[in-house]
Amino acid sequence: MANQVQSKSALSSIKIAQYFLSLVDDDAGELMSNLKLQKLLYYAQGYHLAMFGRPLFSEPIEAWTLGPVVREVYDAYKMYGPGPIPRPRDADFSDLDEGTREFLDEIYCELGQFSAWRLSEMTHADPPWLMARKKGQNSVITHASLREHFGTLLEEN
User: Is residue 64 within 8 Å of 136, Cβ to Cβ?
Assistant: First the structure.
């Protein structure tokens, strides 16, 4: 992940989810399920914490059976079940600065190519999810564990 400009304050997870949904290329047959969206949020939060030392969004990430989940986003899109979530029609991204957009574009470019199930498998191998799962069903994945794990990944590259 390239160094990007740090966002000034944490945004809402819904805003970040809408931005990822806006990147889906319907014409190319791309689909975004709630499962895939959740994993992209996890990776965005983890890399943001490692790169900038502060959260990208304020809502917690929980360790659910199928991987990391931001409950607020899950609840907002659960009506679509396992199917695709439509692109937002009138979303306003004026509160996302250029650095944040570039950061999210890079996350989507690098990880959006993977299926929801592949991303879920990947998160199941990550220490932050594994540690939270040991604490119990739907335990919160801490910012400290995300920062440490993703910091290690950045150092390896």
Answer: no
Domain that holds residue 85: 22-156
Q: Is residue 7 part of a domain?
A: no
Helix/strand/coil for 64: strand
Per-position DSSP letters for 87-123, written without gaps between them: PPSS---TTS-HHHHHHHHHHHHHHTTS-HHHHHHHH
pLDDT at site 9: 60
pTM of the prediction?
A: 0.92
Asked whether residue 9 is assigned to any structural domain, the reply reads no
Residue 16 in domain: no
pLDDT tens sequence across 71-119:
999 999 999 999 999 999 888 999 899 999 999 999 999 999 999 999 9
Domain annotation covers residue 37? yes
Rounded Cα distance between 81 and 84, Å, is 8
Nearest by Cα to 44 from 8, 26, 19: 19
Neighbours of 143 (CB within 10 A): 17
